[in-house]
Amino acid sequence: MILVTGGTGLIGSHLLFHLISNGNRVRSNYRTLESIEKVRKVFGYYTDNPSALIEQIDWVKADITDIGELDSLFDGVEQVYHCAALISFDPKDFKTLERTNVEGTANVVNLSLKNGIKKLCYVSSIAAIGPSTQGKEVTEENEWNQAKASVYGITKYDAELEVWRGSQEGLPIVIVNPGVVIGPGFWKSGSGTFFTYASKEKKYYIPGGTGFVTIKDVILAMIALMESNIKTERFILVNQNMTYKKLFQKIAPKLNVSPPTKVVSKFMIDFFWRWDWVRSNVLGKRRKLSKAVAKGLYHQERYSSDKIKSELGFSFGDMDESIAFCCSKFIEEM
């Protein structure tokens, strides 16, 4: 039996589809029945009968922050893919992020140790990798710099520490640090917002750039690592380093719209995060752009995936193909 936490998210739902399609016995937690319907939608991108596969999953209602609810998830489990996480860049959400991402991961690690799990794969993020120095590509060895990290990045890094602690106590682990994951199904969050934004034929794009990876590559890399003898290692998963301008230039034509052509100036970014702070602290609105995130928009960070290529012989797929597929599904739904 394979356990997938966070199976109702972007990575988790695609992982579930791949595992079930290949004949594995799989269990996953969920919080609401509505979230399972999102998984059914994702499955529908790849099969004409998604319900048949959904029914093969052993669904258990459980929150990773509740150790009592989690305990039953581990009965008969041999492998764990820990994909569950909360994503937010609002500093006001730090305590909630800490509880879900750090304490929740500690719960998964502790129960994995208790139940003699053979191997755990933790899905972290490039947000938990230290920044580049002297313009060099970021690698797994970069020194962590909390002062330059978002609240999300801080909690993902602290969650990694819980996973490393588990490895020191005898739990075989691997960690993956994906870039921005390009995949269909969640158009109002994460990378899905790029497709939504582009579809509205907006005029402005943000400066800078980051590392991107397809959902297919993330899933294949995770499974290959779990089936290998590799353990106690972390791997950056980035297919292409791109500017946001370049990303929109790839997305827009496939949505039959024009890409944004005007860059948001540094002055406007500085003004907006300050105004956003005022809105949040005076009017009680949710933060849309924190100072840490704003500073990260000024330049393009570049990431190296040489480690997984050399140690696993992994080859990344076609980014343009994945973007085209996402665009086709977006058009069908919208």
TrEMBL record:
Pfam families per record: Epimerase
Domain spans labelled NAD-dependent epimerase/dehydratase: 2-228
Top-level taxon of the source organism: Bacteria
The protein, known as: NAD-dependent epimerase/dehydratase family protein
